[in-house]
Specification:
- By secondary structure, the protein is α+β, with helices and mostly antiparallel strands.
- The protein has helices spanning 2-25, 28-41, 49-58, 66-79, 108-117, 124-134, 153-160; strands spanning 81-84, 93-102, 143-148.
- The protein folds into 2 domains: 2-45; 58-160, Dna Ligase, domain 1.
- It contains 7 helices and 3 strands; from the N terminus they run H-H-H-H-E-E-H-H-E-H.
- Residues 1-21 form the signal peptide.
- This is Aminodeoxychorismate lyase.
- GO terms for molecular function: lyase activity.
- Keywords: Lyase, Signal.
Length: 162
Amino acid sequence: MRINLLSSFAAGILISTTICGAVYLTNPSDQSKATVNTVENRSTVKPSEKEMKQKLETKGYIVQTKAEFDKNVKDAKDSGQKQVTPDNNQSAKTVTKVIVNVADGMTSIDVGKALVQASLVQDAFAFSQDIEHKGLENRLRPGVYIVDSEMSYDQMVSTIFK
């Protein structure tokens, strides 16, 4: 009884595979014609650089040329860390500037980890939860952002999550 059950199952699989294959392989010319028609109906007009830039900016992306990006990174590195000495006789305070490079696909927890590494935020997970609580998690855009230790917490958040 067991052998009949197994052979019946195998026969059923074989028959269903044969039917699926026959349906798939019949009229292949109709499928290729549909593909050709779809390709022919597409417009081949390419947008100009200005149109592409405007479309990306309306979607919330920051568009920079390579020269602008390199200049921003160089300026940020040059200003790196600087000493600020107040006029009154208080002790000198070190201001730490941090370059936060947000890549496509990064989340608020990744930004929080970068800020923790720079000692600007205490806990990356708490930072991420605060961003989600404020509803700003979808406002994170790729780009280079500069924050420093003199900024308040809300200023840092508003700088990175525009």
